[in-house]
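Work Package 3 committed the consortium to producing structural models of liganded targets before the mid-term review. Because experimental data for this complex are still outstanding, the team generated a predictive model from sequence and the ligand definition alone, so that downstream docking and mutagenesis planning could proceed in parallel. The input record is reproduced below exactly as it was submitted to the modelling pipeline, together with the SMILES string for pyridoxal-5'-phosphate.
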Amino acid sequence: MKVAKRLEGIGEYYFSQKLREIDELNKQGKQIINLGIGSPDLPPHPEVIKTLQEESEKKNVHAYQSYKGSPVLRQAMSEWYKTWYGVKLDPGSEVLPLIGSKEGIMHICMTYLDKGDEVLVPNPGYPTYRSAVQLSGGKCIDYDLKEKKNYEPDFDKLKKKKLKKVKLMFVNYPQMPTGQLPSKELFGKLVVFGKEHNILIVHDNPYSFILNDNPMSLLSVEGAKECVIELNSLSKSHNMAGWRVGMLCGAKERVDEVLRFKSNMDSGMFLPVQLAAAKALSLGKEWQDEVNAVYRERREKVFELLTLLNCSFSKQQAGLFVWARIPGKFKSGYELSDDPAAFLERRGKNM
Ligand SMILES: Cc1ncc(COP(=O)(O)O)c(C=O)c1O
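The resulting structure, written out as tokens with the ligand in place, is given here.
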């Protein structure tokens, strides 16, 4: 069967292919430690699991749920934003629970893009921005993130581009994969840029609690709701990647617009999952400290490994990944990641 044209140029997701290769190697008895995909391997807080168990046992929780999410979860999301980011969101109209931030990216593209509409996407950046834009008929306009510019958009360069057809801009800080943290100045400039050019800035914010003492929301900038939608997620911050809970935050109008699309796609999340997620969002700083202590220790190991592989990197990075420069002799990171053992062997022989 011939697949639809919209799938032309959309390959299988890189990690979906890579995980298959890893599976094969594990079957051969090799014990592969997977440092590739940002999927937390630790469980959520025991109280979160207990809530899911207790709620699932009730008789009246198994029906379809509201398309807008449970009021308990929306309230918890709104309080979480107030506590950690200092941002006020009306739980009734400015928060929309999602089945992960990834689904929000697709929903936003389907809600706002017509064929030929343009979208600014970061390079390097999370590959889903690009595929969601393409799947929804839009056109990606790359903007480069360079080390010498702190992996921030070069606004002077951007302003020289033709921006008339640009409707959306994806941004993500702490940035994946560079680990770059946001600054107040950067967030201020993004809001000014969005307003000046009538571009909806979509800030994808799933990493703000990982190895970062100062979580920030783009919505904390004065007047941001006029041109910003923010996506957030419990996947990384609460070790709940498989539970699929995220959120979209912004002005009531934006939430209503995205809900028009989303309510045609799914029928709400299992209520006990929503109530357990609300529990997770009420956890205090001790939880974040506990998670980060493990990541800090592991990151040191990754630094050691990268040093062994002759890679260079900055130690000032946040998020689940470590961004590093490969030694010049490799054509690409793929080459090094496919065969690091051969590299170490060659290096051993040379020494
Ligand atoms: C930048 C970025 N955004 C979104 C996601 C997806 O998050 P979720 O699990 O909430 O769909 C990821 C997952 O790796 C990510 O790296």
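Reviewers should note the following from the model. DSSP finds twelve helices and nine strands in the chain. These observations will guide the Year 2 experiments.
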